[in-house]
């Protein structure tokens, strides 16, 4: 029998539509029922490709005894964190305040007026390994609710008061050393043996690498570039990269990047595509371009809709086992490839009888020096063999923020590869977002099944503007730049805190929660506030409009106040700050003919600020031919018919 989720569009909510738990989506009906029946609310937040969400669902939410307790004593609400980042952000702060950690599934117990009094993540159905069992927890909370409710309500008031303490706004003080302090922190945390930063688990966090690459280029620092290259090569060789079907998994569970958490997210692959393409632009090492193009191939054949939008994620689980789809026995390799080719493949890709992961094998190149396409035919054979095993669950909703990251990534890849299909894929996706997730200057977070969500948040605008800027940089089509300006102004209008600085996650005039976060910290993806700093800097440098310069200064000042203690956690902001302080070349191209652009675009520096003009008296043609006006380091070079950068 279906519950109240049956008419939702989120794949995550629909996964729970047939649970015996009487789930509601986040809606006033659920909270009103809790109020009338004087019941506490159980909020469960997750996403459709989350392994431990699946585990808790199977153990508890599909269990009739557990469902009976939830249905009798609680009102239960399911939320897809990717559709409602505001709910996820607020209650994740609650979870971290209670437990000093966080993650998904996130389990929150609260009142009907949305005040939390207890929080956690995954709970086993019965107590084990020192973890309280979910059934025991439900019975304990139900008893306390009936006997000592006042204590629970006092606890809720205390946690809300703690979370509502004033977040630092504008502050005076030194900003000059933030970038250097951030680089030192990365250097101190760098794993010089296996690459990456810190110990396991290791997340790709490509925006850290992008900042370090920019720093290495601006400061001519080979040691910093060495950290980036060590990490990029180790990830490419490790099992976190899918050598059979391409694309990167969400993170590595071990220090070596061998054993991934096997789910694949669109945002990781977008940011990593940008990082590898940028590394190729800096070093001309073909393995980086090869990696970026393999990510693109994965996205185009596994995560792209017929309408041009990009789906969100692929699951880690198959047949109830995490990673089963991706692993191989040695006998399988021999059977599929034959004895001779199978032996060579097994030798290169670390396939053994004993296995390198729980008795089976994750293909990897960590023990090999071969990354040259020698076995591409065998990889393609194994890809088609693997496709017949099991159909991985696909989260087929389209998120505007993640799609915008992929639009930007494909635009960068087009610029370094010269392959038109990447620019075409980026522009197709942008048109889809414009048709399906945009209405005038209003953006919507998600789309699925012909329907878009009701809300749009800061991150949607911030990443869409950044995507439009990259699409402009790739095409030099001014329409994209003008759209970027339009949506940037709308973001300022809707989300800015004009008194204290920064930007709220939700529209302050349309928020229903007890607080409205202003997120600065970069997690798996950069924060909306970091991206707004980046957008202001890029728009100022491209347009030279004072409004963007003032917004950039203001946002840099705001972000600096919250970055001093841990600049390593704000790498996208540091990227923007460094771009502002040490701007790239500014190139004006005075065109003789529009067709000249096609021969020019591939030769432009990746981070240069490029504008084109026709028949402009300020930029006359030299020798009646297309002319380049280049300025760098506060100095302008003589006009030239040859681009020299």
Could you characterize what this model shows?
It is built from 23 helices and 21 strands. The chain is 47% helix and 11% strand. The mean pLDDT is 94. The chain is α+β, with helices and mostly antiparallel strands. The chain starts with 10 loop residues before the first helix and ends in a 9-residue tail after the last strand. It has a 5-stranded mixed beta sheet, with helices on both faces. A 4-stranded mixed beta sheet has the order 19-18-20-21. Strands 8-9-12 form a 3-stranded antiparallel beta sheet.
In total, the number of strands is 21
Largest sheet: 5 strands, mixed
What structural class do you assign from the helix and strand content?
Answer: alpha+beta
Arithmetic mean of pLDDT: 94
Distance between the termini: 66 Å
What is the global morphology?
globular
Task: Report the uncertain regions.
Answer: none
Annotation field: number of helices: 23
Strand content: 5-15%
Percent in helix: 40-55%
What spatial order of strands do you see in the largest sheet?
1-3-2-4-5
- Computed over alpha carbons, the radius of gyration is 26 Å
Kindly list the characteristics that best describe this protein:
11% strand, 645 residues, alpha+beta, five-stranded mixed β-sheet, 21 strands, four-stranded mixed β-sheet, 23 helices
């Amino acid at each position: 029998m279906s519950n109240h989720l049956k008419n939702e569009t989120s794949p995550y909510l629909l996964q729970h539509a047939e649970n015996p738990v009487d789930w509601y989506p986040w809606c006033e009906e659920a909270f009103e029922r809790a109020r009338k029946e004087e019941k506490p609310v159980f909020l469960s937040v997750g996403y459709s490709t989350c392994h431990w969400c699946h585990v808790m669902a199977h153990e508890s939410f599909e269990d009739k005894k557990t469902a009976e307790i939830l249905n009798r004593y609680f009102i239960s609400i399911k939320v897809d964190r990717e559709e409602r980042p505001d709910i996820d952000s607020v209650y994740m702060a609650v979870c971290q305040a209670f437990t000093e950690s966080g993650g998904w599934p996130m389990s929150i117990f609260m009142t009907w007026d949305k005040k939390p009094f207890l929080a956690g993540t995954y709970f086993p159905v019965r107590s084990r390994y020192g973890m309280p069992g979910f059934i025991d927890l439900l019975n304990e909370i139900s008893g306390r609710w009936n006997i000592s409710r006042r204590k629970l309500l006092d606890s809720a008031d205390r946690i809300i008061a703690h979370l509502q303490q004033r977040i630092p706004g504008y502050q005076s003080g030194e900003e000059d050393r933030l970038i250097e302090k951030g680089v030192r922190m990365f250097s101190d945390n760098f794993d010089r043996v296996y690459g990456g930063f810190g110990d396991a688990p290791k997340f790709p966090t490509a925006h850290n690498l992008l900042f370090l690459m920019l720093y290495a280029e601006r400061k001519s620092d080979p040691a910093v570039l060495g950290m980036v290259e060590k990490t990029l090569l180790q990830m490419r060789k490790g099992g976190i990269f899918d050598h059979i079907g391409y694309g990167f998994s969400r993170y590595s569970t071990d220090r070596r990047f061998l054993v991934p958490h096997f789910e694949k997210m669109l945002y990781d692959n977008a940011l990593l595509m940008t990082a590898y393409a940028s590394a190729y632009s800096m070093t001309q090492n073909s393995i980086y371009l090869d990696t970026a193009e393999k990510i693109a191939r994965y996205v185009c054949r596994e995560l792209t809709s017929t309408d041009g939008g990009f789906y969100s994620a692929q699951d880690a689980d198959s047949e109830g086992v995490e990673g089963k789809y991706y692993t191989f026995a040695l006998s399988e390799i021999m059977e599929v490839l034959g004895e001779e080719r199978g032996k060579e493949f097994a030798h290169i890709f670390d396939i053994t009888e004993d296995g390198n992961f729980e008795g089976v094998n994750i293909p990897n190149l960590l023990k090999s020096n071969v990354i040259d396409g020698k076995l591409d035919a065998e990889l393609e054979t194994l890809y088609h063999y693997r496709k017949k095993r099991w159909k991985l669950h696909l989260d087929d909703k389209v998120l505007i923020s993640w799609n915008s990251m992929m639009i930007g990534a494909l635009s960068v890849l087009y610029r370094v590869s010269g392959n038109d299909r990447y620019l075409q894929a980026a522009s197709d996706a942008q048109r889809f977002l414009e048709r399906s997730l945009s209405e005038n200057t209003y953006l919507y977070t998600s789309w699925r099944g012909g329907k878009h969500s009701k809300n749009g948040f800061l991150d949607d605008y911030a990443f869409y503007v950044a995507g439009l800027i990259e699409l402009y940089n790739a095409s030099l089509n001014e329409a994209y730049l003008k759209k970027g300006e339009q949506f940037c102004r709308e973001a300022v209008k809707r989300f800015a805190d004009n008194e204290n600085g920064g930007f709220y996650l939700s529209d302050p005039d349309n928020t229903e929660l007890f607080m409205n976060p202003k997120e600065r910290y970069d997690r798996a993806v950069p924060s909306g506030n970091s991206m707004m700093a980046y957008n202001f800097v890029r728009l100022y440098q491209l347009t030279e409009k004072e409004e963007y310069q003032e917004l950039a200064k203001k946002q840099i000042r705001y972000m600096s106040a919250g970055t001093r203690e841990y600049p390593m956690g704000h790498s996208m902001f540091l990227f923007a700050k460094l771009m502002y302080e040490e701007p790239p070349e500014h190139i004006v191209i005075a065109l003789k003919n529009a067709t000249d652009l096609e021969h020019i675009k591939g030769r432009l520096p990746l981070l240069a600020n490029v504008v084109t003009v026709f028949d402009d008296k300020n930029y006359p043609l030299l020798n009646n031919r297309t002319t380049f006006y280049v300025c760098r380091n506060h100095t302008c070079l003589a006009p030239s018919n040859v681009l020299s950068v």
